[in-house]
C-alpha cells in the first residue's frame, strides 16, 4: 500500500513502484479513508484486504513496535538482517520506517525517507528464492 499526495514529482517513488511491480508486488495507490478489521477503505471506495496491518508513521517507533518482543535496532525499530528478515521470527520480514538493520549486520540504519525505498526494493529483488 502506498499513499501519495497530489504532488507526483517524486521520481524515486516512480522507480520504486516499477521495481516492486517487476518483483511481483501488487501496489495500490490511494488515500486511506478507514481501517477496518480485515480491510482498508480508500477515499475512492476501494477495499484493500489485508491479513496483518502495521501502521508506521512518524520519526519514532509506534507503541505497537515498542511492545513487540523482538530485537530492536538503534532507535528502537524492529531489528532486521541484511535480507530485511526479523531473525528471531521465522518467515517474518519488516520494511519501511518501522525497521532498521541490527548492529550485527554492520549496516547503518536507513533514514525514514521516501528516497530509501529503492534501496529496500533492490534488497527484496535480490533475495534468494
TrEMBL record:
GO cellular component terms, semicolon-separated: mitochondrial inner membrane; peroxisome
Family membership noted in the UniProt record: Belongs to the NADH dehydrogenase family.
GO terms assigned for molecular function: NADH dehydrogenase activity
SUPFAM superfamilies for this protein: FAD/NAD(P)-binding domain (SSF51905)
Keyword tags: FAD, Flavoprotein, Membrane, Mitochondrion, Mitochondrion inner membrane, NAD, Oxidoreductase, Peroxisome
Catalytic activity: a ubiquinone + NADH + H(+) = a ubiquinol + NAD(+)
Full protein name: Oxidoreductase
Pfam families xref list: Pyr_redox_2
Annotated compartments: Mitochondrion inner membrane; Peroxisome
InterPro entries to which the protein is assigned, alphabetical: FAD/NAD-bd_sf, FAD/NAD-binding_dom, NDH-2
Organism: Lithospermum erythrorhizon (Purple gromwell)
Keyword NADP recorded: no
Membrane topology reported for the UniProt record: Peripheral membrane protein
FAD/NAD(P)-binding domain: residues covered: 26-108
Amino acid at each position: 500500500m502506498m499513499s501519495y499526495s497530489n504532488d507526483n514529482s517524486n521520481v524515486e517513488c516512480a522507480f520504486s513502484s516499477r521495481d516492486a511491480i517487476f518483483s511481483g508486488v501488487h501496489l495500490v495507490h490511494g488515500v486511506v479513508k478507514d481501517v477496518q478489521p480485515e480491510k482498508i477503505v480508500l477515499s475512492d471506495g476501494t477495499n484493500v484486504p489485508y491479513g496483518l496491518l502495521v501502521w508506521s508513521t512518524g520519526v519514532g517507533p509506534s507503541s505497537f513496535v515498542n511492545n513487540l518482543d523482538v530485537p530492536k535496532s538503534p532507535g528502537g525499530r524492529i531489528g532486521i538482517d541484511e535480507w530485511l528478515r526479523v531473525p528471531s521470527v521465522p518467515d517474518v520480514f519488516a520494511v519501511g520506517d518501522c525497521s532498521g538493520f541490527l548492529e550485527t549486520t554492520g549496516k547503518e540504519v536507513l533514514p525514514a525517507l521516501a528516497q530509501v525505498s529503492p534501496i529496500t526494493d533492490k534488497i527484496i529483488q535480490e533475495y534468494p528464492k
